[in-house]
Amino acid sequence: MALLTSVDHYWSHGSDALIAALHSSPEGLTTAEAERRLEQVGPNLLKARRRATALDLFLSQSKSPIILMLLFATGVSAVLAEWVDAAIVLAIILGSAVLSFVPLPLPMLLILLLITALYVTTSEVTKGIFFRRVHQ
Questions:
Q1: Domain extents for the chain?
Q2: Are the C-beta atoms of residues 133 and 121 closer than 8 Å to each other?
Q3: CA 103 to chain centre
Q4: In this model, does residue 3 exceed pLDDT 50?
């Protein structure tokens, strides 16, 4: 018996069809089956992603096509020994990066606060007993 890891368009199926597809019952899984699935698949945990640092945010702005073109122009100016032109274009790039980076930390901080305040609620039925768990 292969354990399904997802059911496509689960919202469009009836509960009986989902229970059958997931090899379960209206009473839920037996303790032995729950332990077997936990051993086979592992716990249902959300993976934490690495938090972006201020340097990551600053450097991510250099991926813009216009910034890349300006960097190329700076390189060409430097190769042609046009130091003043290279310095001006580089100053424009750095000024643009600083001006667009300064307003970013506040919204990013607010988003991080919202994410940390988010609670995930899960429900399960095991041996006919309904459990509701809140995960942070």
A1: 10-43+111-135, 54-102
A2: yes
A3: 22
A4: no
